[in-house]
Amino acid sequence: MMPMLWVAAVCCWSFVVVFLVDGWTRPGYAWVRQPVSALALGRRGWVQTTSFLVCGTAVAAGALVGREALGSGLLAVVVGVFGLALVASGVFPMDPMRGYPPGTPDTTPEETSWRHRLHDHAGVVAFAAVPLAALAAAFALPEVWWKVYSGTTAALAGGGLLAFGQAWEEDSRRAGLLQKATIAVGWLWVGLLFVRAA
Description:
mainly alpha; 6 helices
């Protein structure tokens, strides 16, 4: 059980490292504007797709095998749902839009594919699961430090979800930055949760 929990933690943090490095070095990718999911498009799209699949699978497996060690059955279920939503995000990529990949019109299509719509649904589930899991942890875990940290994470991740959602709808030039900050806060917490369980 313990090795799988550590694998899940490392995969959460590696997910952040992958999109940071890949985003900074990807030709034509507007790091501040475009979302992490856009990195799953184009010739190097396999890098981000693999990151979605590996991280999601590891998180779901960690939640399953470590359900008792996580400290709460509800917490384990929500973390597992988060992992499965990441897998779905990798299986169903978003559509090209808003200038990426290079050569794509700098607009939002009026019609999107069914894959894109499934990707959107999976993304909402993943981003909502993190603050819900953190809130569950704030109530379930006995350590005061973890209660405070989890409550803070729930507030930041929940606020980040709302801020990114609004920025995305408005095609804000800072939408990608808001999303990446929200991911960094949430994925760091999930990784540390697995370390605690291990």
